[in-house]
Specification:
With about 130 residues, the protein is α+β, with helices and mostly antiparallel strands. About 25% of the residues lie in helices and about 40% in strands. The chain has a single domain, classed as Alpha-Beta Complex (Nucleoside Triphosphate Pyrophosphohydrolase), CATH 3.90.79. Strands 1, 2, 3, 4, 5 and 6 form a six-stranded mixed β-sheet that branches. The mean pLDDT is about 95.
């Protein structure tokens, strides 16, 4: 998950899938030889078009999904990154759109309840650690 300074509140990077009907946090598979943190950094760059500086681990979620008629289980580790560079408009083909949203708006439009909890935790950390103060 990537955040940057906004006007007052932080802005959060979300990506859209399913024809722009699902807004979610960037995520993907861990490739052979990668750590979960390295995979998160890569996925943020691929799906979100941006690079970030690692801040801390956030949470791990698991869920079931269907792909090509088969049920699959997925485990996702989320990490908090502070935006450093890049353009969300330069995302890859895996997503329909990528944008930064003010935190309040991101909380309203994020599709999955488990990811909303990850986002809420991230916002608490940003506030508690005063990550927007520097």
């Amino acid at each position: 998950m990537v955040f940057r300074r906004g006007k007052g509140d932080p802005e959060i990077l979300l990506v859209a899938t399913k024809g722009g009907t699902r807004w979610q946090l960037p995520k993907g598979k861990v490739e052979p030889g990668e750590s979960p943190q390295e995979a998160a950094f890569r996925e943020v760059k691929e799906e979100g078009g941006v690079e970030g500086e690692f801040v801390c681990p956030l949470d791990t979620i698991s869920y079931w999904y269907y792909w090509e008629g088969k049920k699959h289980w997925k485990l996702v580790d989320f990490f908090l990154f502070r935006y450093r560079s890049g353009d969300p408009g330069k995302h890859d083909w895996e997503v329909d759109d990528a944008r930064f949203f003010p935190a309040r708006e991101a909380l309203e439009i994020i599709t999955f309840p488990t990811e909303k909890k990850v986002l809420e935790r991230a916002l608490e950390i940003i506030k508690r650690k005063r990550l927007l103060d520097d």
